[in-house]
Amino acid sequence: xxxxxxxxxKTSLTTPFLLRQLFADEVxxxxxxLKANEKSFEILEVKGSYKQxxxxxxxxxxxxxxxxxxxxxxxxxxLLNNLRxxxxxxxxxxxxxxxxxxxPHFLDxxxxxxxxxxxxxxxxxxxxxxxxxxxxDKEPKGCSTICYKDENKTWLFHNEDGHIAYANxxxxxxxxxxxxxxxxxxxxxxxxTGNCPSLNNKGIIQTTxxxxxxxxxxxxxxxxxxxxxxxxxxxxxxxxxxTMEPRAYPYHHNIGSIxxxxxxxxxxxxxTWQVKEPEGIYYHTNHLLFDETRKYxxxxxxxxxxxxxxxxxxxxxxxxxxALHKLFPEDIINILASHRNAPYSxxxxxxxxxxxxxxxxxxxxxxxxxxxLYKGNPCKxxxxxxYIDFHLDEILN
Length: 397
Prior knowledge:
The chain is of the alpha+beta class. The protein has helices at about 5-10, 15-25, 50-70, 75-85, 85-100, 105-115, 120-130, 130-135, 220-230, 235-240, 300-320, 330-335, 380, and strands at about 30-35, 40-45, 145-150, 155-165, 170-175, 180-185, 200, 205-210, 250-255, 260-270, 275, 280-285, 355-365, 370-375, 385-390. The protein has 13 helices and 15 strands.
């Protein structure tokens, strides 16, 4: 650092934005950061090694991560206690070993994120394997997905639900990875990218639905698998990643290829998996539907009967009223904006002890090559046009 810059840092009231830009200059990385506004989440454009990408995420969004940890301090403390217990530590080492074996670069990314945020690795790693550590979470999660496909169009819609602590702290990452696959993805602070709606420069789409389980096994953590899919070069490679063994926890992936005009619904458990390619109107929430997977004995039946089935039934009932011959995207968004059966409605708002909220809604228009990301609850975001569009061409190079 030259003397002028050193003096500037010592004597001026430098804004966080300027500090971030100075950081990017110092490490020689072309980083572009855009503040959040009414219509858009914060956006960070990054490139570099996996560790550098992780470091930039932690550096720019360390405060977001710390705010989540503070807001959910009991939850995070319990995660760490579980991680550091005899049984949890043993499991964690196996998750680390398998991740190191198959995807060591993603561990570099997580380590970089922890370093950039000024946090111990365990504090972030525990969040990245939270499902495997908890097995049965007391706070039902969410996510509702609707796909429509006919001879003229393919649309995918997805409500991203999570704890209210993440509201106003989510961000968008646009990354140029060392693999040559660029991607744009919504991100939970403190969790490796990949479980939220995303699109890469090969036209591969991913959104995911949590599947509740009362146990986990030794295998690859679900968030690591989701992260790997972000860099899939085609839909077949994405399926190979999703179904690779061993898997630690069940999951549902909505996988699409804009370039191939395909949508696949993929359910996995630690012991089996099944892929379907639906036509017409199709929907999925957070329980297993397929013949090969719904026999999974460890699925959380209580969670299925509360949050997941409630939203599924609302979508099922309201889908019957759709006039498919003259369907508009707004017709499906309106279903995801429904408050029927609250607090376990498609559009979720915290109510009493239920802290779940819809944090954003994704809409993929295959024919227009657009990934639209609505900010916050669709009941408001769709009405007030609170969204930003990402075109496939934007991330090609």
